[in-house]
Each structure stands twice: as structure tokens, then as C-alpha cells.
Write a structure and sequence with these properties.
Layout lengths: L1 E2 L5 E2 L13 H10 L7 E2 H7 L13 H10 L3 E3 L9 E4 L1 H8 L4 H8 L3 H15 L4 H19 L2
Antiparallel strand pairs: 1-2, 3-5, 4-5
Length: 155
């Protein structure tokens, strides 16, 4: 990470594991794609997977924090059996279900073709269901909107 004039370190572009660098779905796929033969992945494995050199300072910064949040949502699980270090993570059944959720081809084509006015109507429908869904789904939907809004507002 490079230092700023005020002494604070700034993030190296592409080196963050926060919501704005990786969507929840992308992070879950990264975990899934890097599970070892026993079904576990470490923070170091994930850093390697996106090409962060082993010698880079703070290369694991943020990975455990993000996975900890994903654990709170119930989509990943942290190993609790010795040895506890390095920390290992795996997908939960809920995480697999979230990743496997798909639309039919016809619905996907309809969604891709939505114009602004219809997109607003779709958002109204989604937000109407948002209040009625389970906490995990609601959190993931909220985070998807946060990520999309930040991407739009920053161009």
C-alpha cells in the first residue's frame, strides 16, 4: 500500500476484499473455486487466487473481516477444529444455494431487456418482497444495492 501525504496508507487498487472490490457473489465464487480437497480455503489461498504477491505488505488485510461478515450472513463457515491457524473457511449449505440460484433463460432475457421505467417497477417489486424475506436474503439484496449505487455514483 502506498502512503498518503497525511501518513495514512491508501489501498492499492484491486487489492481490497471489500464489497466494492468483490460482490458477495464474486467472493462466494472465489471461495468455492479455491476449496481444497477437504473443502476448505485460507485467506492466503484467496490472496493467491487474485494474484497478490506473498511479499506484499498487508496482503491478507480485510479478507478475514469480509469472510467474518459472510459468516454472520450464514453463507460461509469458519473452521473450529484444531489446528485453528491458519484460519480456514468453507461454504455452508446456504452459501451453495445462493450461488446456485438461477433464472430461466426467458426470465433472464426479459430482465436484460428492461428499460428504465420497467426497472423502477422491478425495484418496487423487489423492495416489496425485501421486507418479507429472511434476514440472509435481505442482507444480500441490500448489499447488492449498496454496491450498485456506489458504482453508479462514482462512474
Amino acid at each position: 500500500m502506498a502512503a498518503r501525504g497525511n501518513g495514512q496508507r491508501k489501498k492499492v487498487p484491486g487489492r481490497s476484499f471489500d464489497l466494492y472490490a468483490f460482490s458477495d457473489e464474486e467472493l462466494l465464487h472465489l471461495v468455492k473455486d479455491n476449496l481444497d480437497a477437504d473443502g476448505w480455503v485460507t485467506s492466503s489461498d484467496l490472496a493467491d487466487a487474485i494474484g497478490i504477491p506473498a511479499e506484499e505488505d498487508n496482503r491478507l488485510s480485510g479478507i478475514g473481516i469480509r469472510l467474518g461478515w459472510m459468516q454472520r450472513y450464514g453463507v460461509v463457515r469458519k473452521n473450529t477444529d484444531p489446528p485453528l491457524l491458519p484460519t480456514k473457511w468453507t461454504l455452508t449449505g446456504r452459501g451453495i444455494v445462493v450461488l446456485d440460484a438461477t433464472f430461466s433463460k426467458a426470465l433472464d432475457e426479459q430482465l436484460q431487456g428492461l428499460k428504465g421505467e420497467a426497472l423502477w417497477r422491478l425495484a418496487r417489486e423487489v423492495t416489496g418482497r425485501y421486507g418479507q424475506t429472511d434476514d440472509v436474503s435481505a442482507s444480500l439484496v441490500r448489499r447488492s444495492f449498496l454496491r450498485a449505487h456506489r458504482g453508479r455514483s462514482r462512474g
